[in-house]
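We store amino acids, tokens; thus:
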Amino acid sequence: METSMTMTIDHALGRKLERFARLSEEDHRALRRLREAPLREVEPRADLIAEGDEPAVVRLSESGWACRYKHLPNGRRQIVGLFVPGDFCDLNVYILRHLDHSIGAISKVRYYALPPHMIEELVHDRPRIGKALLWNELVQASIQREWLLTLGQRNARERLANLFVEMFHRVRSIGLAGDGKFEFPLTQTDLADTTGMTPVHTNRTIQELRQEGLIDMDRRHLGICDLAALSRLAMFNAGYLHLDREGETLDAAN
């Protein structure tokens, strides 16, 4: 099984984008050039960028997990997005003057700080990559809609089950999950902040899923013991992730 320690960022990003367009060798060379950008490292629980900051660069995750979150004035937090290797944390956000949310590291995160002109030139010079990036952004919006559905209509068990199945599919699609087990650095507080539950309720629900033989969770890893059963519990529909590799039908020479 490939791990985040051995997978290069252009490989993870390339695997992701090829769901939306079949990339040529020239396209892959262009993605490899993204590694020329500065590589930065953020310790766990520190912010990559905070709400109100000026978003001067595009952040492309090389390793580790991060989250997008919002805070209320009383300190309560809602996680509204998760990032894994190969994800852009903010592909187009440099257009804004100030960021309206924060990006925080869950585990240690390494990311490439891409100057905006690098993205603009990539899209201009490699239109197939540009189209795939646009498609990828549409999928991110689709994930947000599913998360809204989860918060509004799924119960506690269904919320956690859907999140676990979603993240398994997302990391497996870039080669970072095998035999149903993958790195999962979210704490129970993180899970509570993601699913809109209390930490106590989150803990109780995790124990139920464990006792039913659906998951196996330790401090930093999640095992999906019965993917079919967990998916049924979540009423999971993989369509919103668009993982059916439409790119296989496209010709990279065009």
The chain has eight helices and ten strands. The two ends are 33 Å apart (CA to CA).
